[in-house]
Amino acid sequence: MTIGIGTYIDYKYTDKTIGEALKKNAASGGFGLVASAGTAVILGKALVSNSIGWSVAGGIVVGTGVSWTFNRAYDNNFLGIQDGLDWKGQFIKLGVKL
Known about the structure:
By secondary structure, the chain is an all-alpha fold. The protein has one domain. Helices cover 77% and strands 0% of the residues. The protein has helices at residues 2-13, 18-46, 51-75, 81-89. Helix 1 runs antiparallel to helix 2 (18-46), helix 2 runs antiparallel to helix 3 and helix 2 crosses helix 4 (81-89). The chain is elongated.
């Protein structure tokens, strides 16, 4: 859901094409999801008592931090992230008018 809302906001309000907005939000969401799942698994294995609650909480915190960091890097074009994702996003042509 976050990827869809972020794509719509970027397309509508930041002068991105639908492909550019989709590529950016899919990358951000993907990194956050992988970080959340990885953290939850690691904490679940490391903690013995009450591992489920701490695993979920840790996964949410780490995933949010990774997504936020990625978005900051994208906004500042760190290491050309924005240029690369926008270039790839220009090849996505969806027959959608928002």
